[in-house]
């Protein structure tokens, strides 16, 4: 009956009778029809296809597209499930979306206040060192933060080089993706896992996959860069410009960065009870964490000279874009997550039964993360794993059980979501920021398909096969 | 201080070219070059969500701006004034301030060239940011404005701005530099005016003798300013006002039919400005006259 009501609501958007008579906030995933995931698929396909097919339209109207899909799912959900739908929407907004955006915003604001100045000359050694530093920083200041800090100095250092596209591609591989594996701050999917109950330090389990992948890529980069450096016939670095010593401006922002790390860590360890916000129970420590993150961002804005941000070409636009797109993603994601969490009782039971082994989770989470954003993909397959192993069990308990009894599955999902984000420009939000900055600086970047065919498929897929053989078979 | 090189950033709004034309009289007092500057806002072409950068769009905007500027260059050239076109992608305020210093210009011309309707203030937040932060004199051009006068809407064309300038001074060092700048306009000026306002904050609570002393001193200083202008060949007239400084300056400017207001500005930081306010920025916001701010 509920499926019929939902279908009527989804496609006709007409008011429905208050027929729902279930208990308080039951698992709606057991009654949601399969086509309730259409808005989620539509949202993700919009992100994947519009930038390719109609980039100008997308640039000016992505907010309307996001709002459209959000309304398409929210209205029929509210009509069909009333109080339960209100609860689910408020829950995902208050418990997932708001903390997610606050963390991204705080990391973006604080790292945007740190400026690396000085004359760097892009030799193979200098470039490999910069990529290594970026890879190491990404887990602690976020992939977006580390990318924003280093991409412009990296491009300036290599302005005299002929072949620059491959450098930026490796930058995307390492700094904008794989480097963010070690903490929930590193990459958005890991923070969403943290919000669902994955402990802060659990992500250190990704250390060995990360070391292997990053090590292989850095060695390959060094070989390629040395080859091109020699081929370009650069005998000595250009000395027609006055050399400035290397220095960091706005380095006090590292204090605020430490504050962010401390706040997130605290929220994972402290248990200060709960508070009800609009009927949604949230841990007091989580609310305090969000407050502290906002405080760190505000302090960074106050104490960082405007000129430092200007020299960093800091703009709020990317974070606004993420905030607008992700409200659409989070709202449209509700049916998909709920159905998956219902396990065999949900309409996506066929996926749960098909995805059984860690290797499946690694490759399927990864493949979808490459073409859809990796944050919602991570949550989808975390829900798939929980639905498969612990159907009907509350999420926080299911996450704890998954870590205790089947951690290899969480590892496969996490590594897949983070690593495969590098396979395409649309796999992870920092990828497009790096591409945009590189193209503005005059680096001719490969097209969407050129990036995949020339770089990510031949290079990354070999690395991922090796990771599979070592960790997931 | 001579104005030899002007930075003219524009968004190609209506009357932008007419406003530039109205400044060409500066050639008579030494203007040699105009930098025609257009900033393509980074957000217009960059950071396409999950898409990257609109290179073709940038090229299109760049070409459009170049064609328009090259048309303007003909007029500049016909008037014997050199020019240079710079088109960049970036953040307008930061880029304008950076390029002004890099090109060592003597004057930045900012502000809308046409303002109609009843909205206040006369300038936007970007213009305010530029005048707050600029270390170079900035002329807030208001080529065509519409404002309320005696309950009626009046349209004013500010196309002969150097004819009757009003220098509003607070005796500060920037005011001294504003005086020097005003003196450099000799040859364009029909008559200049110098005013000072005894602020209500100062006069409140003072006994009469103290107030008279301040009044006498102010008049003497105004006379001194006028003498210095006369020494440069500019006829000048002193005016002393009292009350709320910005409103009083605007009243005087209207009574004297001034064509522009020139002021020194201390470049207070944002926090100081929020708490204490800035007379010069207030004037820029609410006066219908072009305002030249000298830091």
Would you summarize the structure shown here?
The complex is a heterodimer of chains A (473) and B (295). Chain A has 473 residues and is mainly alpha-helical. Chain A has 18 helices and four strands.
- Uncertain residue segments of chain B: none
Helix content of chain A: 55-70%
Question: What oligomeric assembly is this protein in?
Answer: heterodimer
Biggest sheet architecture of chain A: 2 strands, antiparallel
Sum up the overall morphology of chain B in one term.
globular
Strand content of chain B: 15-25%
**C-alpha Rg of chain A, in Å?**
23 Å
Quickly list its features.
heterodimer, A: 473 residues, mainly alpha, two-stranded antiparallel ribbon, globular, B: 295 residues, alpha/beta, ten-stranded mixed sheet, three-stranded mixed sheet, 11 helices, 41% helix
What does this molecule look like?
The complex is a heterodimer of chains A (473) and B (295). Chain A is mostly helical and 473 residues long. Chain A has helices at residues 2-12, 38-53, 55-111, 124-157, 165-174, 188-195, 207-231, 253-269, 284-303, 306-311, 317-341, 349-354, 358-371, 374-389, 395-405, 407-420, 429-440, 448-472, and strands spanning 115-117, 247-249, 274-277, 280-283. Chain A has a two-stranded antiparallel sheet. In chain A, strand 3 and strand 4 form a beta hairpin. In chain A, helix 3 (55-111) crosses helix 11 (317-341), helix 7 (207-231) packs across helix 18 (448-472) and helix 14 runs antiparallel to helix 16 (407-420). Mean pLDDT of chain A is 89; it is low at 11-23. Chain B has 295 residues and is an alpha/beta fold. Chain B is 41% helix and 25% strand. Chain B contains eleven helices and 13 strands. Chain B has helices spanning 16-22, 42-45, 55-78, 92-102, 125-133, 173-183, 200-203, 208-231, 245-255, 270-276, 279-286, and strands at 5-9, 33-41, 82-90, 107-110, 114-115, 138-140, 144-149, 152-157, 165-168, 192-199, 236-243, 260-264, 291-294. In chain B, the strands form two sheets. In chain B, strands 3-2-1-4-6-13-12-9-10-11 form a ten-stranded mixed beta sheet, with helices on both faces. A three-stranded mixed beta sheet of chain B has the order 5-7-8, with no helix packed on it. Chain B is globular. Classes of the chains: A mainly alpha (473), B alpha/beta (295).
């Amino acid at each position: 009956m509920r499926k019929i009501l939902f279908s009527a609501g989804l496609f006709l958007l007409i008011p429905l009778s208050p027929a729902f008579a279930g208990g308080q906030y039951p698992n709606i995933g057991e009654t949601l029809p399969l086509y309730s995931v259409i808005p989620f698929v539509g949202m993700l396909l919009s992100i994947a296809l519009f930038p390719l097919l109609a980039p100008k339209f997308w640039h000016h109207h992505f907010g309307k597209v996001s709002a459209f899909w959000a309304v398409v799912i929210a209205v029929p959900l509210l009509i069909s499930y009333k109080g339960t739908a209100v609860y689910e929407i408020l829950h995902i907004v208050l418990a997932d979306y708001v903390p997610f955006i606050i963390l991204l915003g705080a990391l973006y604001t604080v790292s945007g206040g740190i400026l690396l100045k000085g004359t760097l000359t892009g030799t193979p050694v200098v470039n490999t060192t910069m990529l290594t530093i970026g890879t190491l920083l990404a887990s602690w200041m976020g992939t977006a933060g580390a990318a924003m800090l280093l991409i412009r100095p990296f491009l300036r250092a290599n302005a005299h080089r002929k072949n620059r596209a491959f450098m930026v591609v490796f930058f995307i591989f390492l700094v904008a993706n794989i480097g963010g594996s070690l903490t929930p701050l590193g990459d958005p999917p890991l923070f969403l896992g943290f919000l669902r109950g994955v402990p802060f330090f659990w992500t250190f389990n990704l250390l060995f996959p990360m070391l292997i992948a990053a090590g292989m890529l850095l060695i390959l980069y060094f070989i390629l860069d040395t080859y091109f450096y020699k081929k370009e016939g650069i005998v000595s670095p250009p000395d027609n410009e006055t050399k400035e010593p290397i220095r960091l401006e706005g380095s006090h922002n590292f204090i605020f960065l430490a504050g962010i790390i401390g706040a997130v860590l605290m929220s994972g360890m402290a248990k200060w009870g709960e508070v009800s916000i609009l009927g949604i129970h949230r841990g007091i420590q989580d609310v305090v964490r969000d407050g502290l993150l906002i405080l760190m961002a505000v302090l960074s804005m106050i104490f960082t000279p405007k000129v430092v941000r200007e020299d960093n070409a800091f703009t709020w636009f990317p974070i606004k874009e993420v905030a607008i797109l992700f409200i659409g993603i989070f709202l449209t994601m509700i049916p998909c997550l709920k159905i998956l969490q219902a396990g065999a009782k949900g309409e996506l039971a066929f996926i749960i039964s098909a995805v059984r082994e860690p290797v499946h989770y690694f490759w399927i989470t990864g493949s979808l993360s490459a073409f859809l954003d990796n944050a919602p993909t991570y949550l989808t397959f975390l829900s798939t794993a929980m639905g498969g192993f612990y159907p009907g069990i509350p999420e926080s308990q299911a996450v704890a059980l998954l870590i205790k009894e089947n951690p290899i599955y969480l590892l496969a999902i996490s590594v897949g979501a983070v690593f495969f984000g590098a396979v395409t420009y649309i796999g992870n939000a920092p990828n497009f920021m790096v591409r945009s900055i590189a193209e503005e600086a005059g680096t001719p970047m490969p097209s969407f398909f050129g990036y995949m065919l020339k770089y990510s498929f031949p290079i990354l897929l070999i690395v991922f096969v090796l990771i599979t053989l070592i960790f997931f078979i | 201080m001579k104005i030899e090189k002007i930075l003219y950033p524009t968004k190609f709004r209506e009357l932008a070219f007419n406003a530039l034309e109205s400044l060409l009289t500066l050639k008579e007092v030494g203007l040699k070059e105009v930098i025609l500057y257009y900033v393509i806002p980074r957000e217009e072409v960059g950071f396409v969500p999950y898409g990257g950068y609109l290179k073709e769009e940038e090229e299109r905007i760049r070409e459009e701006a170049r064609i328009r500027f090259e048309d303007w260059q003909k007029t500049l050239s016909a008037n014997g004034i050199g020019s240079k076109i710079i088109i960049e992608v970036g953040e307008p305020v930061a880029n304008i301030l950076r390029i002004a210093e890099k090109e060592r210009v003597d004057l930045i011309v900012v502000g809308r060239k046409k303002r109609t309707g009843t909205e206040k203030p006369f300038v936007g937040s970007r213009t305010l940011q530029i005048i707050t932060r600029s270390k170079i004199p900035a002329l807030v051009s208001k080529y065509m404005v519409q404002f309320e006068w005696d309950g009626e809407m009046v349209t004013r064309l500010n196309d002969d701005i150097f004819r009757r300038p009003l220098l509003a001074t607070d005796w500060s060092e920037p005011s001294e530099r504003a005086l020097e700048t005003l003196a450099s306009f000799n040859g364009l000026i029909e008559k200049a005016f110098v005013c000072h306002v005894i602020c209500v904050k100062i006069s409140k609570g003072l006994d009469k003798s103290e107030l008279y002393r301040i009044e006498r001193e102010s008049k003497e200083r105004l006379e001194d300013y006028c003498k210095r202008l006369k020494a440069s060949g500019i006829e000048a007239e002193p005016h002393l006002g009292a009350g709320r400084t910005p409103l009083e300056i605007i009243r005087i400017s209207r009574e004297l039919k001034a064509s522009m207001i020139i002021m020194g500005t201390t470049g207070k930081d944002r926090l100081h400005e929020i708490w204490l306010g800035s007379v010069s920025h207030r004037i820029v916001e609410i006066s219908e006259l072009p305002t030249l701010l000298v830091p």
